[in-house]
Write a structure and sequence with these properties.
The protein is α/β, with parallel strands linked by helices. It is built from 14 helices and 11 strands.
Length: about 400
């Protein structure tokens, strides 16, 4: 697919990896000066976690944060690997789901980390999806004023998005992710084999974020996804390559705009509409999960761009066709239980934390791989567009 072959692994890390006779992982570096770190992507990385962690840290102990689903699947594997490298570990379990990203969940994880005698030179490991990553990451950012964090993402969404870039946090009664900190990990291990146990719906939802990177600024990646979608879903090297390309895309944007004052907003393609849909469906995962909302949001961003005369309708149709082939929704009519009214959608958009000085920011596109940031849109245009979206049944 891509022109940029991944760089050779750093000496220490490749020595750690090859000592276990596993395939050499793909490596993406996040260039953040003194806080630069590697993302490794490949099969069987959890088995090598001890040696890999030891290659970047002198920690003697680690708190492994998991949820009730990832604990029985992967916690023992990581503990054993750490043990073999002389790192003692304690496992901290939270309930699965967004509700753990609360003050209470955060307090419990922080206290458990302290009770496990994790010192400033030790580690917090987030072994789970985006929920565990955000929660454990925020705990790591604040316990003892900051403890090193290793992300071991176990969902496709977390491997391509939330584990990279340092955003951590919990939800407030006012809205999602409103309390948090930037805390970059010291290492990210994306073991592609763990995605085999992920429910199919969660995998598909994560794929919406994969597609998002292609739509932002990678037209060739989009073509490659069109040709390789089945193989990515099946696993193996195409899956690892797709994840690596997403991590490269995210790493590039994070390196130039770590705290989202500019270009990092491009990563919100599909999210202005998507967050509004999550809001109007009450964050009820039986109706809509985040990735599905992003899928519809990306298709809407393209149709809105067409409606504003910015993009060719053929591009929007190609995005919709790809989403359909991947088993993802693309229209408001696909939302179980309905997507509300123009008024509820507008109200939800006005609440988005990306609203600055009253105007929501839209990521629009001139075409596939040609997105841009549009701060503020004529409100009548938005209203008309939402009305036409609600009337259309696809
Ligand atoms: P996301 O990563 O999409 O933000 P979550 O952290 O909520 O979402 O994870 C989605 C669901 O998948 C949760 O129920 C979680 O426990 C479960 N899960 C995470 N990783 C795996 C895995 N590798 N295998 C099986 N289930 C998993
Ligand atoms: Zn997202």
């Amino acid at each position: 697919m891509n022109e940029q072959a991944s760089e050779p692994s750093s000496d220490k890390i490749s020595a750690a990896a090859s000592s276990q006779a596993a395939p050499v992982p793909l490596r993406v570096k996040v260039e953040l000066g003194a806080r630069a770190y590697d993302i490794l992507i490949g099969e069987g990385l959890l088995e090598q976690a001890g040696a890999l962690v030891a290659s970047i840290s002198s920690a003697k102990a680690a708190a492994i944060v998991v949820d009730e689903n990832t604990r029985p699947l992967y916690a023992d594997k990581v503990s054993a690997a750490l043990d073999a490298a002389g790192i003692r570990s304690a496992v901290i379990t939270v309930q699965p789901g967004e509700r753990s990203k609360s003050w209470r969940g955060y307090g419990e994880v922080c206290e458990a980390i302290l009770a496990a005698r994790i010192g400033r030179d030790d580690l917090v490991i987030a072994l789970g999806g985006g929920v565990v990553g955000d929660l454990a990451g925020f705990a790591a950012a604040t316990v003892r004023r900051g403890v090193a964090l290793v992300q071991m993402p176990t969902t496709l969404l977390a491997q391509v998005d939330s584990s990279v870039g340092g955003k951590t946090g919990i939800n407030s009664a006012v809205g999602k992710n409103l309390i948090g900190a930037f805390h970059q990990p010291s290492l990210v291990l994306a073991d592609t084999r763990v995605l085999d146990t992920l429910p199919a719906r969660e995998f598909r939802a994560g794929y919406a974020e994969v597609l998002k990177y292609a739509l932002i600024d990678r037209p060739q990646f989009f073509e490659w996804l069109e040709a390789n979608r089945d193989e990515i879903f099946a696993g193996g090297s195409a899956r690892a390559e797709a994840i690596a390309e997403c991590c490269r895309a995210k790493a590039e944007i994070v390196a130039v705009d770590e705290t989202e004052t500019g270009d990092r907003a491009l990563l919100n393609l599909g999210h202005t509409f998507g967050h509004a849909l999550e809001n109007v469906t009450g964050y009820d995962s039986s109706r809509l999960v985040h990735g599905e909302a992003v899928a519809i949001g990306c298709a809407m961003a393209f149709r809105f761009s067409v409606a504003l005369g910015l993009a060719d309708p053929a591009h929007a149709r190609r995005v919709e066709a790809h989403l359909a082939e991947a088993g993802l929704p693309s229209r408001l009519a696909h939302v179980r239980g309905g997507a509300g009214s123009v008024e509820t959608l507008l109200a939800a958009m006005a609440q988005d934390k990306k609203v600055r000085h009253g105007t929501p920011t839209f990521i629009l596109a001139h075409g596939i791989g040609r997105s841009f940031i549009q701060r503020g849109v004529e409100s009548q245009h938005l209203r008309d567009f939402l009305l036409s979206e609600l009337r259309s049944n696809g």
